[in-house]
Specification:
There is one protein chain. The chain is α+β, with helices and mostly antiparallel strands. It folds into two domains: 1-64, no CATH class; 85-204, Transposase Inhibitor Protein From Tn5, Chain A, domain 1. The chain has helices at 7-14, 25-37, 44-50, 55-64, 66-83, 157-168, 188-196, 222-227, and strands spanning 91-100, 110-114, 117-131, 134-143, 178-181, 200-203, 210-212, 219-221, 234-235, 244-245. α6 (157-168) packs parallel to α7. It is globular, with a radius of gyration of 23 Å. It starts with 6 loop residues before the first helix and ends with a strand.
Length: 246
């Protein structure tokens, strides 16, 4: 990397590259450094020029090393799982993030729902791991609309989220994780996968969703469930305040 990148930064980044073959590691290090170092317009050409390295080698690494991405991600997940304290259950937050992009020949381009309405660009399903006060990227899965996928390769956002949950089950014991999600992901396929892993989940639920209560086989709507009183539980907010009923 030459004089452009401090030795301390190079040493920190190398710890992430152990799953790669030795000839791939310098190109991966170059690519990671460019993503961190260059604030605007992080193109491969710009990264190679900034660190005075051949463009063709960097382009070959990015184009032909896709299978390594999953190995790198699993390496990072093992490290994060080891750091998670046993005394406090980590929080896994599921969401999707659209990125607006323009252009006619961008692969995987499509229309995606966002907080600001429909966005034309890319979209990824993401999982963030919160351990204490620290937040880490756990997993990223690119989402492509069905019409932009080759036949038989489409995966919905729910299917991608279920895949990430099942992968995380290999690193956290039963009951060792809480999953947080919004109403889009609160569906049977994903909630059943979380329950099968023995975890707790917290989710917003749309009023028209049907649920099955524990010990019953009858489906009821969340709207009617919210209107009925399920019982009382005494809680104390503070020693200086009176006991309240909910």
């Amino acid at each position: 990397m030459g004089k452009h990148l401090p030795q301390q930064v190079r040493s920190a980044l190398r710890a992430w590259l152990t799953p790669l073959r030795k000839p791939q590691q310098p190109q991966a290090l170059l690519y990671l450094a460019g993503l961190l170092w260059i604030i605007r317009f992080r193109s491969l050409r710009e990264i190679a020029a900034r660190f005075d390295r051949p463009l063709d080698r960097l382009h070959h690494f990015v184009s032909c090393s896709t299978p390594c991405a999953r190995d790198l991600q699993h390496q990072n997940q093992r490290r994060l799982a080891r750091q998670a304290p046993v005394t406090s259950a980590p929080l896994l937050v599921l969401d999707d993030t659209p990125v607006a992009r323009n252009g006619q020949a961008i692969e995987g381009l499509g229309w995606h729902h966002s907080a600001k309405g429909l966005v034309r660009g890319w979209c990824a399903v993401t999982a963030m791991l919160k351990v204490g006060s620290q937040r880490f990227l756990w997993a990223v899965r690119g989402y492509r609309p069905k019409k932009n996928c080759p036949r038989g390769q489409f995966q919905s956002k729910i299917e991608l989220a279920v895949e990430m949950v099942r992968e995380a089950a290999a690193y956290f014991p039963c009951g060792g994780l809480t999953v947080l999600m919004d109403s889009w992901y609160a569906c049977a396929g994903l909630l059943n996968a979380i329950q099968a892993a023995g975890w707790t989940y917290l989710a917003a639920v749309r009023a028209n969703r049907l649920v099955v209560l524990a010990g019953s086989k009858r489906k009821v709507s969340v709207r009617s469930l919210a209107k009925s009183r399920q019982g009382w539980r005494r809680v104390r907010a503070d020693d200086r305040l009176p006991t309240s009923q909910f």
